[in-house]
Design goal:
Dihydrofolate Reductase, subunit A; about 180 residues; 10 strands; binds NADP nicotinamide-adenine-dinucleotide phosphate; alpha/beta; 8-stranded mixed β-sheet
Amino acid sequence: MSRTVYNTATSLDGFIATEDHSLDWLFAADGGEALGETEDFIRGAGAMVSGASTYEWILRHEGDKPWPYESPCWVLTHRDLPRVEGDIRFASADTDQELRDLHARVVESARGRDVWLVGGGRIAADLARLGLLDEVVVSIAPVTLGSGAPLLAGRVDLRVLDVYRAGDFACARYEVVRS
Ligand SMILES: NC(=O)c1ccc[n+]([C@@H]2O[C@H](COP(=O)([O-])OP(=O)(O)OC[C@H]3O[C@@H](n4cnc5c(N)ncnc54)[C@H](OP(=O)(O)O)[C@@H]3O)[C@@H](O)[C@H]2O)c1
């Protein structure tokens, strides 16, 4: 059974990027060997979902390197973003029903494996509100940012499943509580 999992790194005060979409603070922290659990999850995921800003960050970060993922990557956007070599599927969802329909297509494309929600926080909160997000996994970097792109842009009730340390990061895995 495919789970939809928001697996991300965050600052202690709940931001996944600075206002200007920098992740320098994240790469300044040392994940050590133990972040392997996150890498295993990413390798095993059958499909990815990404907002436009997150996709643009990956393009900037990867430069001219080939697209780093094999599984289908669904990019939510209203714009005509650059397309790179790889299984990139642009889509938009402006109503709850459109988001439900899109999520069903994403899950189908994952062929029984998990769906990795890469970012961002608005999509995660919307999926949770609709009962379509199963887990949130956070690697908390030892830094506060004060402002930036929110981890979750809305209330989401969670139940902790696991906590562990990975180098400089405090990590936690939560189940989303459905109301
Ligand atoms: N710390 C980490 O591990 C981590 C992980 C992932 C991402 N990040 C970073 O966090 C930041 C996230 O940026 P963000 O908060 O702006 O979130 P985002 O979800 O990456 O991008 C938001 C944009 O996605 C598009 N979008 C979102 N929902 C949509 C929908 N339902 N239908 C159509 N388009 C939709 C819209 O763009 P348009 O309407 O303009 O197309 C929206 O402005 C980025 O800088 C990213 O690099 C960090």
